[in-house]
Queue: 2 jobs
Job 1
Amino acid sequence: MSDVANRILVTGACGQLGAELVAALREKHGWKNVIASDIYPSTDLMQKDGIYIKLDVLNKKKLSYTMSHLGIKQVYHLAAVLSAKGEQNPLPAWELNMQGLVNVLDVAREKKIKRVFWPSSIAVFGPQSFRAACTQNAVLDPMTMYGISKMAGEYWCRYYYERFGVDVRSIRYPGLISHAANPGGGTTDYAVDIFHAAVESGQYECYLKENTGLPMMYMPDAIRATMELMEISADNLTIRTSYNLAAINFTPKELAAEIGKHIPSFKVLYTPDGRQDIADSWPSSIDDRFARHEWGWRPKFKLGDMVSDMLCHLRKEVYA
């Protein structure tokens, strides 16, 4: 076992964010010091780049034993059910999203874990929030079980910080776009699916209206933001619920047009479904001035940069 003071556990490591975050953390801290975990049984593939363990965050006893036995000092708690899947089975989604977080926070309190990261989402906003440039302190008005759990989770994080001194840090992620992991059941996942369809078949059926603007972020920026937040001194931070975070804003039509610059024959058919109502309840852009001021956040990828990089990776790694 490593004696490194910052040994890290990542829950939900098989998800869209987890897969790339684990790789980035291992590059920085060494593969022995970053333990990946999820509810799936271990395989040779999961173990090839480092330690992976099967772990259900709803099992608090096993969670506590794991943290003690492995000498965990930091936790990135990513295990969750996302927005669209959460609407299909709201009560199980609530149980995982809420009880899983409370278990992690309580074990962190008991074991004196140095630092905890937990992702929130723009899903905490809703019709009564600002539609454009939604501010850090805007009204939280979630319209989905996912958003409700994230709103409640933000206040659990603040409670455990103020009541017990657990150093919990959080980001309200916009829609995340990645070439390295499959979509996880979120409303913004059209912005991942569309790239696969463009490369594979040259056409895509989009479940949102063409002019539905949403805040988005390319995964390399999301990973960098997460690690920057976790490395900054606690003295710099004033937000103990969750930080607004922004990068790029676009509509399905604008994204399709940018892809069309690389694949001129690409066609999109728009057939909105129930996910349109979820998207309509969210802001089209986010004001993240607190993140920029308090820990120096700046995105690197603009729309054109992201599209070029996504298509390059998919052509080389998935559809070669």
Note: The chain has a mean pLDDT of 94.
Job 2
Amino acid sequence: MKRLSRYLLTECSVTVSIALVVLTFLVLLPQIVKLMYLWVDSTLSIGILLHMTVLILPKFVVATLPMALLLGILLALGRLSQESEMVILRTSGVSLYQIARPIAILVLLATGFSLWLNWVAVPQSHQHFYQIKSAMLARSTLAIKSNTFQQILPGLTLYVREQQLPERILWGILIHDQRNADEPETVVARQGRLHHDSLGHLALYLEEGSRQRLLPGGGLRRLDFVTFDMDLGLDGNPADDPETRALATYSFSALYQAVDQGTPEHVRLARMEWHHRLAIPAATCILGLLAIPLGLQQGHRSGRGFGFVLAILVLMLHFTLITLGELLAHRHVLDPLPGYGAPNVLMVLLTLHVYRESARDRPVFLADRVQAAIQFLARVVSMRRVETPGVEA
């Protein structure tokens, strides 16, 4: 029995690891492209780029881990079912729960890893990434050249006729702001200076100028000003105020205190972040355990795509429930606890039902219908290939 447990644990671990690497790479790829654009615009070193990529990795691993666990276990058990190994085990008297026991060890390890990521790795990496990005953008912003059009930020172009150092006083300022693509804005000012506002954000204090904004309908709105403080959207000195700091950067102790302190809105947002960090590891555990009986539902004629299709359907169901609960919690329709907890409770009930039916060797409705649909599509494709002239079956 120990040899069987090691065999099942090894098979599932390999497929889950491969699925985790592939899914994480696919999700991370667009972010890497954005960092590459940032690298080109700000001339940062390749070492900093790699460091920033590593820092955003935990956030995406948290999201892909439940999917990889579900998909990996389904594919591993599907392969064993295709090769009749599961049939031999079941006819030899090995029960569903004996098969599930070693795989549950993998699920519990993945759940613990998800908890560590949510409460330790993600907050720390998010804070470090934010600091590096802000410092890098602030450095590029402070390196202003006279008589040169510079894109100091993505979508923000600055022209300065001349400047006075080290006071950072600028003359003849022209700013074109396309960060809001629907309403691009052009700002002209006689002079200005860079400074940090009360929240530590890097800002540009402008004097004697005008703002021209292009409206969606094609109109133009102009506003003349004597003074205008333009926030550049950079945190050159991260604020220590709990009310302004991002909740995603809070450690366990800081978030625990935020649940009981601060304004009512801040407390509600802190509670939502708290339940969000608990809901994702819970979903990881539930989906991993649900994959075991669903994987055993696969028969000889299910086809190799059965596990993948079934995983997509289960993930769509769970994602829809989580999104709905989170939306209701954000709109004050539900308290954060039922908003984030109810989807997992429904999935637990589904998991218990699937285990009960599988233990009695009864086909689960969802798995049975997916298998029938895949077999039907395979027959249709096969018939069309035979009937199409010039196509060899």
Note: The longest strand covers residues 220-235.
